[in-house]
Amino acid sequence: MNCASVRNLLSAYLDSELAGSEMQQVRAHLEQCPTCRAECDDLREVKSLLRGLPPCCAPNGMEERLKAALSQAERPLPLRVEPSVAAGLTLAAAAAIAGFFVYTLIKPPTEPTMAGEYPPAMHRQIDGTRDFERARSPFSGHTIPVSLDDGHSGR
Amino acid sequence: MESKTIERGAMVAGARRELFESLLEQTHQQLFHLALRLTGRRADAEDLVQESFVRAYRFFHRFDESLPFSSWLYRIMTNAYIDEMRRRGRLKTSSLDGPHPETGAGWDVRDDSPSPEAVVLSHEMDADIQEALNCMTPEFRVAVLLADMQGLSYEEISEVMNTSVGTVRSRIHRGRKQLKKYLSAVNPEKYDRMLES
Fold first, then answer.
1. Which of A51, A111, B22, B51 has a Cα at 20 to 30 A from A86?
2. Using CB atoms, which residue from B33, B46, B54 is nearest to A55?
3. What residues 85-124 of chain A have any CB closer than 8 A to a CB of chain B?
4. In contact, B62 and B69? CB cutoff 8 Å
5. pLDDT in tens, B102-111
6. Are B49 and B84 in contact (CB under 8 A)?
C-alpha cells in the first residue's frame, strides 16, 4: 500500500472498520511511515475531541412540549399544494377559459344541410307544435330558431 | 415483525400514544444532544427534535422493530435536518476558507467540570468545536457525529443515512479532516499542540 491509499483508510482504521488484511497492511505502513503516522494521530485526536464533548441537557419543559406537539400529528394533514403546481393549475384553467371563448367566436355557424333547411334535429323542432321565433345570434349574426316554452307566442 | 407492525397499526389511538410517549421519554435527551450538535443552536435543536418526533409519530405504524427506535429517530431527524438545510439553500455555502456564516451564535451548554479553569477551557473548546462542526458539509457533520458522538457503526450509519458503507467511510474521513483543518486555522497554537501531543 502506498501513502495515498493508506491515508484514505485512516479513519476506518481508527474505527476498526477495515477487514483484517487491510488493518494489517495499514498498521504495517504506519510503522514505517512517519508522515502517515502523524496524520493518523491528528485524526485520532479529532475523534477524541468529539467523544469528549459534554452531554447536553434538554431545555426545561421540552418533554411536555413534545408530547403536546404529538396532537398535531393526530390531525389529518392539510392539503398542501406546491406553489409551482398551483401556478400551473391556474394557468391551465385560464387557458381553458380563453380557449372556450376563442372557439365560440371562431366557430362556424351551423349551416342548413340543404338550402332553406336545418339539420334534422332542428327540423323536428321547427316542424313540431312548439312556438319558435327566429333570433339573431350575437356571435355570428345568423338567425337561429328560439323555442318559446313560456307560453308566449313570439311569431 | 410484520405481525408486530400490524398489531401497532391496529392499536387503539390511546394505547398507541401511550407507547410512543414512553419511547419519547427514553430517547428525547439523546436526540436533543445530537440535534444541538447538528444545528448549533438550542432553539433550532428543539424545533428539529419536535419536527422529528411529530414525523415519527405520524408514521409510527411503519416503524420496523428490527431497528432500535433511536436509530429510526436518527434517520428521521437527519433527513429532516438535511431537508431543512437544502430548503434554506445553505447546503454548500459553508466553507472552511471563508468567513463563518453564523459567527456570534450563542452557544449554551451545561458544563459539569468542577474547576473554573476547566469550565473556561471546556467552554472555549466546546465553542471552537461547535464552530468547526457548523462549517462542515451537513452530510459529513451527520456522519461524523453519529460515529464519534453517538458511537454508531458504519453499517448502522449507512442505514440511518440510507447510503452505502463506502460513502459513510468517505464522509467520516473527509469530515474529520475538515474539523482538523478548521481547528488548526482558528487556533493553531492550541490545537496543533494538542494534536501533536
1. B51
2. B33
3. none
4. no
5. 444 433 333 3
6. no
